[in-house]
Amino acid sequence: MARQTRLSTRLSAASLVHLGAPRLADLLIEAGGGNANLKRRLRLELAAEAGPDVLALEIDKRITALAAARTRVSWRKRGELIEDLNAHLRMILERLSPEAPVEALAVLIRWFDLYPGLAARVKDTRGELPAAFEAAAPDLFALAEAGGDKALQDLVAALERRPQDYGRWISVAGETLGPRTARRLLDGLDASARKTPAGRNLLRRLADKAGDLDLWLSLVTPEQAGSPDIAADIARRLLDAGRIAEARAALKVPLAPSPLNRRWTFGHNPKNGAPRLTPAWEAVSIDVLDAEGNRQEAQDLRWSLFERDLSAPVLRDYLSRLPDFDDVEALDRAFAYASSYPDFEAAMRLLMDWPAHREAAALVLTRPREARQPRPISADWGSRLAQRYPEAADILAS
User: Fold this and answer.
1) What distances in angstroms separate CA 310 from CA 122, 167, 307, one per listed residue?
2) Is 30 exposed, middle or buried (0-12, 13-18, 19+ CB in 10 A)?
3) Residue closest to 303 by CA, chosen among 292, 289, 367
4) Are the C-beta atoms of 205 and 217 separated by less than 8 Å?
5) Which among 17, 77, 102, 344 is least surrounded, fewest beta carbons within 10 Å?
6) Per-residue pLDDT tens over the stretch 274-288
7) How far apart are CA 254 and CA 124, in angstroms?
């Protein structure tokens, strides 16, 4: 008697093949009866087999239904909705796009049009819905890169309808939105986009992608230019473009108190307020000094910032610009300065992370009272020092 082949009962594509198409079809119909998402997925697969026109129509039907719905979506149903959205997204990208890229972009734009309506009726304290649309943004602009003029007209219209949302999606699109397409989108937008904050933000993000520095600069308001961080961004871009004098001028704007930069100064009176300079502003100001040829002044500023903050990146930058052997002497001076720094924890962080364990152990032995203060990081420091510097490790553990 012939010996029967034993089939595996482990669920896999290979094992299910043995059930045969008719039996699998029956099982899918049975499962789809209690699972609306699965039923819709099966229809999409059948539509894809029928051709891109049929698939686009089937996806549009679901988008229209979601757009027309007004019922609230509870947190229990949120996952099911996002699964449904992602299933239709995958069909647009994986099945429709290869066959009809122009139609795929048009359908995908309509998919993105769902966002404001869904955001208004979906209970989503975890931010899963906006995350789903942000995750799809690179795919949208990747399709736009390959689209013709008609497809881009649809996208331009979408940008004009919802500049705030698209400003965010452009930001998360990364490199998928290239300079050429960004330029074409800019050229297609109406001049009225400048009239609203959301429109100006959208234009600024597109100008950034297009590499149009002058347009980007023209969209920065005087009040924004008074922010140290925004002034640093402006100066960095100008510096990268070789426009050194303009970079210096941009850095000066937050230093001149005026009603426009009141919010960036201490106190309520800008005449008496000092600007809240930030690490970004300080870093660019150093680079501008270097570009201007004031290298010693830049080095002096790096050292003064290190003395203020015990910043390891600033110290490494300072040392990297010194001649051989001078950097060794400067590092010894930096460690000596850290040993007397008023903030014990900041000094230990610098020495342990550098790493300079010998100097860190000496700091613990010199300032044992401060070393014994309870800190979450002390156990880690102690374990790293225990083998070579057990006495310092014991003090940290006590």
Assistant:
1) 47, 38, 6
2) exposed
3) 289
4) no
5) 17
6) 566 889 999 999 999
7) 39
